[in-house]
Amino acid sequence: MRRVSGPLIHADADAFFVSVALRGRPDLAGRPVVVGDPVVACASYPARAAGVRSGTGITEALRTCPSLVVLPVPGEEVEQVSDELFRILDRAAPAVEPGSMEEAFLDTSALGWAEVEEQARALRREVRERLGITVTTGIGRTKLFAKLASRTAKPDGLRVIGPEEERRLRTTLPLADVWGVGARTLGRLHALGVSTLGELAGVPVHRLHELCGTTMARRLRQVVEGCDDAEVRPVRSRQTLSAGTATVGWGRADRSPAELADVVCRRLAHRAGEAGLVAGTVTVSLAREGVPTEHRRARLDSASAEEDLLRRCVAELLAAGAVPLVDTLTVTLSDLSATDRPRQDPLF
C-alpha cells in the first residue's frame, strides 16, 4: 500500500447517462429528466430534487413528478462518451483506476496540492469543452477522502479535503459517509453506540472482527489510523467488452432480442476495432427488470471482432432455444487479445 502525502483526484461525471442524453437537447435544460424504461436508469438533478430516484419504475416516477421528461437510454452514445472520457483521464495522470464507466481515481501523488487542484480544474474544463458534460472532482490524500470530496461537491463542483480537514474528519466523520460501509455493518455498529470514526477508535480489534468480519474490520482500522488505501491501481488491459440495450423503450415500439442483435453487434465491432482487440468468446446475457435470466456462450473458431461474424454468432445463440420474456439484452466479448495494429484501449 502506498504511503505518501501527495493527493489523489477522484473524477466522477454528473448524472452521466442523462447528461449524455441531454447534450443535443438544450430545450430540456433545468427540467426534470430521466432515462430508462421500464425503470429509471439515471435521473437528472432537477428530477432528484423532485423525489425521483434511480431504480424507480417509470410509472411511479411520473406520479412523483408529473412534469418529468422520459428519454431512452442513449446506449451507443454513452459508450462512446465513456471511451473518450477515459482517454482524457489517461492523458491527465500516469495511472488511472476506473470505478465505473464514468468515474475513476487519478494518481497525482507526485504533485503538490496547488498543482493538483489546478489540474483538476483543467480536467473539468476539458471534459466540458470536448464532451459537453460536467464532471465533479474531489481531491484528497487517500481514496476515501478524494471520493468523499467529489461526492459532497456534486454536481459540477470541485472540493479539496486537505491534511488539516482530514485529521478532523477522521474523528468526526459519520460512519454512514465512509465509502463501502454497508447497511448491515452500520446497524451492528450503531447497536454498540458507534456512529463516527472517533467512536469507532474505541472498539477493541477483536470485537470489530466479530461484528464486521476480517476484511471490513481491517479496512475500518486502517481508516481510523490514517493508513487507508491510497494506491491507484490502473487497468493494464481490459478483460471484456460489452454492449447492451433494452427491448422496451418509452415512447417507441418494443423490439425483440433478435432485432437488437444488429445494433449491439455493430457497436461492439466498432469499439473493438477502435481498441485494436479481437475476441475468442461471445456471451449473450438476457435480463428482466434488472435480474439476469439466462446466459448463452459460444467460442469462436478463431479470434475476431468482425461485425458480420458477431451478428451470426449472436443469432445462433438466440436461436439455440426459446428466449424467455426479457427487457434487456447484452453481448459481451471476452478472451480478448490485441490485433497486429492496436489503437486506443477503452476501459469500458
UniProtKB/TrEMBL annotation:
GO terms for biological process: DNA repair; error-free translesion synthesis; error-prone translesion synthesis. GO terms for molecular function: damaged DNA binding; deoxycytidyl transferase activity; DNA-directed DNA polymerase activity. InterPro entries: DNA/RNA_pol_sf, DNA_pol_Y-fam_little_finger, DNApol_IV, Rev_trsase/Diguanyl_cyclase, UmuC. Pfam families: IMS, IMS_C. It comes from the Bacteria. Residues 8-182 form the UmuC domain. Poorly processive, error-prone DNA polymerase involved in untargeted mutagenesis. Copies undamaged DNA at stalled replication forks, which arise in vivo from mismatched or misaligned primer ends. These misaligned primers can be extended by PolIV. Exhibits no 3'-5' exonuclease (proofreading) activity. May be involved in translesional synthesis, in conjunction with the beta clamp from PolIII. Belongs to the DNA polymerase type-Y family. This is DNA polymerase IV. It comes from Desertihabitans brevis.
